[in-house]
Design goal:
With about 280 residues, the protein is an alpha/beta fold. Helices cover about 30% and strands about 15% of the residues. The chain contains 6 helices and 9 strands; from the N terminus they run E-H-H-E-E-H-E-E-H-E-H-E-E-H-E. It is globular.
């Protein structure tokens, strides 16, 4: 099913089923993914704009993005945010939010609405190919993962700089979007994405999106959402990085599972394929 079709109010129930063999299966694929095309970054890609006018343009675009996101999240999806007061415990430092990956549109705007500062989100390079918004993603905070050694180094430098600037880094550790999924999948990369918090000595929060029936049928059977923030969990400076990563990943996963159980409406069904 294409991304745009997720907006339809009247998707037949028979089409709201995804059969998967593994939790790493991807229900939504771009043309590049379908053709198994390796998508890299443009030559000379700048993770952090060098020119002042690009930084100003980025700040303006982000403000427009944030204002639209407020309307879109609250009016279209009916989002209510719980636990935002917990972010106050990270005053004076950057932090990392780990979120469940369940809607390709909400997952762009939701963290900006929930966070108390500017966000920068780790994305796949393939997202830069999305028509319309793709080329704009870097300007509103998208940080695409690099492929080459130089790209990976520049990416990590950008992540560290944004956290040093006391910004919010957003990570989707489940990797693939499972539309409207009400559970939490194991993290394909294990605890490796928690290195950003450990390396920079900043706290970890979770953002869990849950789904519920609407009282108003204006949007058909499409669910509304609630968002739950939890944390913070801090790296322990007395422990080695590997142990810290594992501990933070376990706490984040358990938190997301706990809050995911608050979902009261299963719009899409996910069924594991019979091995036979």
């Amino acid at each position: 099913m294409a991304k745009a079709e997720l907006f339809q109010k009247d998707i037949p129930k028979s089409e709201r089923v995804f059969y998967y063999a593994s939790e790493e299966d991807d229900p939504i694929k771009t043309d590049e993914q379908e053709k198994k095309v390796e998508v890299g970054l443009p030559e000379g890609y700048e993770f952090i704009p060098k020119h002042w006018w690009m930084r100003v343009w980025s700040a303006i675009l982000y403000r427009v993005f944030w204002v639209f996101g407020q309307w879109y999240e609250r009016r279209y999806w009916g989002v209510k945010v719980y636990g935002r007061e917990k972010l106050k415990q990270a005053r004076g430092v950057g932090y990392v939010i780990y979120a469940n990956h369940t809607n390709p549109f909400h997952d762009v705007f939701g963290p900006a609405v929930a966070a108390d500062r500017r966000i920068f989100t780790i994305i796949s390079p393939v997202n830069l190919k999305v028509p319309g918004i793709g080329p704009m993603l870097p300007l509103i905070g998208g940080l695409p993962l690099g492929k080459s050694r130089d790209e990976k180094r520049a990416f990590n430098e950008a992540v560290d700089k944004r956290l040093a600037q006391k910004k919010c880094l957003v990570v989707y550790p489940e990797a693939h979007v499972w539309p409207y999924y009400t559970g939490v999948r194991k993290f394909p990369a294990g605890d490796r994405s928690f290195k950003y918090a450990v390396r920079n000595g900043v706290p970890v929060f979770t953002m869990t999106t849950t789904y519920h029936k609407r009282k108003n049928k204006k949007r058909g059977d499409l669910p509304r959402m609630d968002v739950y923030l939890d944390g913070p969990w801090w790296p322990d400076e007395t422990k080695p990085e590997e142990e810290n990563r594992a501990d933070l990943a376990s706490k984040a996963y358990d938190s997301m599972v706990k809050y995911s159980k608050k979902s009261t409406y299963e719009y899409f069904k996910y069924k594991k394929k019979d091995k036979k």
